[in-house]
TrEMBL record:
It comes from Nocardioides immobilis. This is Core-binding (CB) domain-containing protein. InterPro entries: CB, DNA_brk_join_enz, Integrase_recombinase_N, Phage_int_M. Coiled coil: none annotated. Residues 18-103 form the Core-binding (CB) domain. Keywords: DNA-binding.
């Protein structure tokens, strides 16, 4: 712990106790977006991220849980059916950005949303 304090990497364990939704709303308010982009981000979070992650504490969300959530979005678990790979990529990108901000703000120690996106690779698109 002393080394992490000296190197500036110390993260107070209490800092990550904020709910994902509360932190995401703070993050959203600080973003510089056009009104249409801001509305799109709000919709993506409200429809896809908040039902699963919203009430969870930032520090309690594991990368494996984010990966399972992304898979459920792709597979269509729930009442909406499967999401298009591009939509899953957008939602994952937003959630990943929120976690990156949480790391910069020293709310969590490591990036928790680093999961490979479901988007097809560029080479897969050219093979059609």
């Amino acid at each position: 712990m002393t080394a992490s304090v000296v190197t500036g990497r110390y993260v107070d364990p209490k800092a990550g106790r904020i709910a994902f939704k509360a932190y995401a709303e703070q993050w959203r308010a600080a973003q510089v977006h056009r009104p249409s982009s801001a509305a799109h981000v709000e919709t993506m979070l409200r429809r896809h991220a908040y039902p699963t992650l919203g009430e969870r504490q930032l520090s309690s969300i594991l990368p494996s849980e984010v990966q399972a959530w992304v898979k459920r979005l792709s597979a269509g678990a729930g009442d909406r059916g499967p999401l298009a790979p591009s939509t899953v990529g957008v939602v994952h990108g937003i959630v990943s950005s929120i976690f990156k901000a949480a790391v910069r703000d020293r709310r969590v120690m490591a990036i928790r949303a680093r999961v490979r996106s479901c988007r097809r690779s560029r080479s897969a698109r050219w093979r059609r």
